[in-house]
Amino acid sequence: MLLSGSGKPQFGEGNREVGEAPLGRPVWAAVGGSLMSLCLPFTGVATMKFKSPPVNSLSLEFLTEFSISLEKLENNRACRGVIITSTLPKIFSSGLDITEMCGKSMEHYTEFWRAVQEMWLRLYGSNMVTVAAVNGSSPAGGCLVAMSCDYRIMAENPKFSIGLNEAQLGIVAPFWFKDTFVNVVGHRIAERSLQLGSLHPAPEAHKLGLVDELVPEEKLMERAAAVMAQWLALPDHARQLTKTMMRKAVLDRLVAHREEDIKNFVTFVSKESIQKSLRMYMEMLKKRKS
Ligand SMILES: CC/C=C\C/C=C\C/C=C\CCC/C=C/C(=O)SCCNC(=O)CCNC(=O)[C@H](O)C(C)(C)COP(=O)(O)OP(=O)(O)OC[C@H]1O[C@@H](n2cnc3c(N)ncnc32)[C@H](O)[C@@H]1OP(=O)(O)O
After folding, report:
1. Residue 60 CA, ligand 1 centroid: distance in Å
2. Within its chain, how far is the Cα of 1 from the centroid?
3. Domain 27-289 bears CATH identifier 3.30.565.10
4. Is the CB of 120 under 6 A from ligand 1?
């Protein structure tokens, strides 16, 4: 992430190429941030590829770059859709960066949670067609990113899993993660899956409706482009108004309770018992490796 003199993050500064489409509308030919690459060809469909090794964790820096990228695309009249995927093998996103929630100050937790909210408000509320090409595992916050898109296509590898596994970490998915989940899979499946903190292998995720289709990994981007073309064949205004109608209540709920939600998160995550759970989880991840 590059920072301007004012301290405000400037996305992709320095390696942004601005082109002029035949109709005179400005088009970015290619934009590269440090944690994700973004490409908007003249087709009007952007591809956003996460590239934050080792596992595309959603750190404060990542979330900020993500939100800025979405804002740039949203404000670009030439862009009607975005396909979100990962450059890393086997991982779409490992979810929120746990180190951002461990051993930090209240101020840091506040800033971090506001960035998580901002990313979700932008993605879930986007006017663009959003397609997730889930080419690897996608736990918790990674699942939220995929669920916030209009359509999810996952690589059919049963080793890849997706779900809201917060309960396994000893933490609780906030109400807007839950609302997003319910809107995708329905109340009963969400209730069971959330309480158990389940990570569903790709075939099971498909059966539950958590992902819309499975394809061989090498066909993922081709299929995402075909789905995008299908969704873009409709007039934007009709699709956008329908999307707003379907999602507004859930978006408004967070907007109305944003500060309270931040307070709850900070209080919750600052508890010693929660800090202990998160530390133990990180240790478990490291042990599993060795
Ligand atoms: C009453 C209550 C009221 C209100 C509540 C209020 C608020 C709610 C409070 C909290 C809500 C928080 C919501 C949280 C959402 C989240 O997203 S939490 C994150 C969940 N993510 C996970 O559980 C994934 C964990 N990771 C994995 O399972 C695996 O790493 C993987 C499957 C993604 C990849 O496996 P591998 O390829 O085998 O890679 P490694 O496991 O070796 O990992 C490499 C490296 O990366 C580190 N790492 C992995 N995931 C994370 C992560 N999410 N954050 C930070 N770091 C991560 C891992 O430790 C390894 O590090 P090193 O050992 O190499 O240093």
Report:
1. 14
2. 18
3. no
4. no
